[in-house]
Amino acid sequence: MPLPSQPTDARRPRAMVIDGSWRALGPGLEPFSGPGGAPLTRTVKLILLPLVVRPALRPELAADFLTPERAAQLDALIRESGARLLATAQWFTLLKRTRRALGVVAGNPQDLYFQRCFQLAAEHGAPAAGAGAFARAVVEDVADADGGRTVDALKRHLADDTRHACIETELALAWKSRRPATTSGTAAVVARAAEVLEACGGPDGPLDSPEYGVMVQAGDGDLLGRALWANPGTDAAGVWGRSHVPVHLGLTERQLPPRPQVGRGASTATLPAPLDRTLFERLFVVLQSSARREELPTVPELVRSEVGRSCAPLGLYDESLRVAVVLGGRLAVGLDPLGTGDSAPGRTSAHRAVNNRWRREASVLRARRMTVSPRPDPDGGVLDALAQDLRAPWAAYMRRLWVRLHGRDVRDAPLTDAAAAWAVLDGVARSVMMDHRARVRSALRALSVPPVGPAAVPEAAESRSA
Questions:
Q1: I want to staple 401 with a disulfide (CB 3.0 to 4.6 A). Which of 112, 328, 376, 454 is the partner?
Q2: Structural element, H or E, at residue 160
Q3: Is 35 in contact with 43 (CB distance < 8 Å)?
Q4: What is the pLDDT of residues 272-289, one digit of tens each?
Q5: Residue ranges per domain, the chain?
Q6: Residues paired with residue 39 on neighbouring β-strands, in sequence order
């Protein structure tokens, strides 16, 4: 069935093209489809885009809106892959049945098996004689790859009441034995951070900054972390070099960071701020986000180490990573995607590099127009909420930065010089910018694309919990 007729110059949302082409493939794809027949988010993300469309090789198909010629090209690619996609769905059903028979419960089957099933379909076609052995081998291989370093293993480890109580006692002792907090010297820390950021953001890349080594040797990260344990009052300027921002920059929602608890569960949909998380929640994020779990310590070792780490300044052991938090905080308070504070003092070349990149984003340009427009948001507040995020981008930046640094700390991966630190700081800025761009596009798509028939319903949010 050809694509619906349309004006010759009309552009169509890529998501709409994918939806229509998918539905045209017919029955048999229910394991990869939502209640209304549309492909699941993970189906698009893990199978259709990277394995069928392959926009890296076909950049003309990477846009959110396609010309009729490109829409027809995309439609043809999906239809040509129909038989392989049907075989992929059959393999996925077989792997899930095998997984249940083996008693494997760790991980999300879609994340673990979607791409493996596509590979099996490419190599063997639909499951035939002997397919059960292939399926068992894949399930066992995936289960063994993490060496027991799973959220389920963590949950079982902390489920023992005696062990749980013992760890709570260890946390209480570690928290009580912290060194006295102080706020003296933080202004000098902020000044040194500005020098490092000035050297990092130049057009030729990060320059050698001896000041970074000075910060690490002087324990600037330790000093700032202990300062945030003290009653910060309203002296944000003394900590970050800028008033009118929270001293903790979103790392905690409390006046003072609380003593960590052990915890027994976690969910990505309800994770608190980094320094407010339980020990379980901290390790939950590490285990869920690790592509190579075999490189992590075992679960008992992870727990033992996290007891001390969660009570350390800034929730980190390594001083170079703490210094990265200082640098990130100093960068974060100067992020200004909307361009409303160019005259603010203390901006560095790093700030200019990140802000200039962000201000070129079309989503930011629209948000800026909404910010200065006296008219109410015609889209029911959806885009206005996204524009509000750009007025205080430091919260999203600091939370994502802390998670990345925490992951490095768990793996004993310090930042050896200013160039390595800037790679992380700049990478987090790009990640936050791309995430905001994706949310704006998703909102625009939802506002502009009508439902496809009465049976179409939004796919449920796919959050993870344990």
A1: 328
A2: none
A3: no
A4: 999 999 999 999 999 888
A5: 12-80, 84-145, 178-259+311-448
A6: 33
